[in-house]
Amino acid sequence: DAANLPLTDLDKLKHENHSFKEELERAKKMIEKQQKKMEQVISKIRMLEDQLANEEGTSNALREEIMMKENNIQQLRFAMRELSARNQELIEKNLILQETIGHSESKPQLPEM
Amino acid sequence: DAANLPLTDLDKLKHENHSFKEELERAKKMIEKQQKKMEQVISKIRMLEDQLANEEGTSNALREEIMMKENNIQQLRFAMRELSARNQELIEKNLILQETIGHSESKPQLPEM
Fold first, then answer.
1. pLDDT tens sequence across A64-75
2. Taking a contact as any Cβ pair under 8 Å apart, which residues of chain A between 59 and 78 contact chain B?
3. CA dist A20 to A14, A23, A32, Å?
């Protein structure tokens, strides 16, 4: 009868209520757990961004060093070419001088006084 | 009286129930929102890890290039020293030859036949 109905609804509602409370507790724990994980992950992102910036700085420094070494190489090559050319001139002068001496020595000379 | 009490409890429970349902809905939406954000953030981490690996690869390649250029520089310097030494010898030979010619030309010679 009518007096009984509200009691059954009351029990149902009490059970439903209890379920909701428990589900809500679990949901809040889940939210908290996700927030902690999010903090860790964001912290990892900052760390990776720092490492990336460092590594890019390193690459740039290495590129500058390469440019300096390349300049050095070009200077050395230029100096080598100059030195080789000078060498070549000296070799040719030497040959000429040797030929000149050859001619002189083939000419008869008066004995030294 | 006793017939009224359960009714009031019923209303209270209905209200509480309704509140819990709404709070639970909000909590579920929050959880879903956090999960989506987590996916984006994890995706960003993968991207940063890839960029970092690439940049480290680049740095290593640059270091190798530096080593090769340094070897090249050492070879060029060695060759320069050798060439300079050769140069020096030629200059000295040259001087000796010129002095020899100087002596020859100071000696009187018989006229050519």
1. 999 999 999 999
2. 59, 62-63, 65-66, 69-70, 72-73, 76-77
3. 10, 5, 18
